[in-house]
Amino acid sequence: MSNSKLNGQRRAVVTGIGVQCAFADNYEQFRSELRGSTGNKSHSRVITLENLERTTQQDYQKIKTKSLIDFNEYGLDSLKEAMKNAILSVNDLEEIKHKVGLVYSTSTEDTNTFLYRTYSEEESSFGTKFSEYVQDAIPINGKITVCDSSCSAGGIAAGKALDLIRYSDHKIVLLGGIETITVMQHSGFSILGALGTKGSQPFSNLRDGVGLGNASVFLIVEEYEYALNREAPILGEIVGYGISNDAYHITAPHPEGIGAKLAMQRAIEEAGITAEDITYINAHGTGTPTNDAMEVLAISEVFGHPVHVSSIKSLTGHTLSAAGIVELAATVAAMHEQYAIPNYKLHQPMEHMENIVFPEEAIPLHYHYALSNSFAFGGNCVSVVVKKITQEVS
């Protein structure tokens, strides 16, 4: 008899992942590169001050549609890969389509198409919404939610997916994050002085800002009993999330990490565990002086024991609204394979408390729970707790 409920609640498990980002074109490559086969190579697909192209209206008139990332296809490709890895077919979804939901995070939905059409004097309207595009290809008649709270949106989307499984009759939630960086985002981060010279260097004394990157990632989240009955592969379980807002500044985090601490504490409490149960944290870790200092302080105060902390933004760049999902995928992958993801580009580690460990290479690590942080402009903070489970036979 399987334990299909935890603390009386329905359980949400991850059964498949599909991903495209700056350093990987699929989940298998993503898994491999996270472990360190990339080394400390720089990735030309991450936007930094060194490779930022200042695109003008005249430049856009020369751009051909095929040179732009098709937002809808970009997202659908990762969703299809996640379904394939979850051994989930369109026919499977058709049978329960009223219990299949879609939750995704984005802040640029089809903006590149809009910009191209505007500057090329074509019809300046947005294309088909991603949710409608997906519904043309995949049967979904359940809840559809789009999250856009900038860099915390992915984590919030994960929490929404968990709630749909726990508190409704949904059997499956297609959980995703899609971001295609536009000239507006290039310009905005440049004006803020937030773009790093050589991209993100989280937790390094040399850090001077972020790199930006595209990402499309989907996780198949299923009700535990349903996943067991169809003998789906189970990579991990989403067990809790916490949301907060420090109401401090429009772009800067509270220097004492008040919002970050509260989000982590709430996530741990909702998961029904204690801080001591967490031994690996996938940090927001943008590589900006203020964010990293705040996050390290917050982690050191919430966790009094040794915790391994890493950020993958030196590989992915900051993927903005998709960051929480691509980093949740990384956390689940590492937890499933039982290691701590290394920090790339960690030259001259910043000063930190003794209980924080910054792995510089993939370290074998036995742990049952991990936490993923996502923080955003406006003081928005979210943390998600995932659990490694032993797959049971129903």
UniProtKB/TrEMBL annotation:
GO terms for biological process: fatty acid biosynthetic process. GO terms for molecular function: 3-oxoacyl-[acyl-carrier-protein] synthase activity. Keywords: Transferase. Gene3D superfamilies: 3.40.47.10. It comes from the Bacteria. Residues 9-388 form the Ketosynthase family 3 (KS3) domain. InterPro entries: Beta-ketoacyl_synthase (IPR000794), Ketoacyl_synth_C (IPR014031), Ketoacyl_synth_N (IPR014030), PKS_Beta-ketoAc_synthase_dom (IPR020841), Thiolase-like (IPR016039). Belongs to the thiolase-like superfamily. Beta-ketoacyl-ACP synthases family. This is Beta-ketoacyl-[acyl-carrier-protein] synthase family protein.
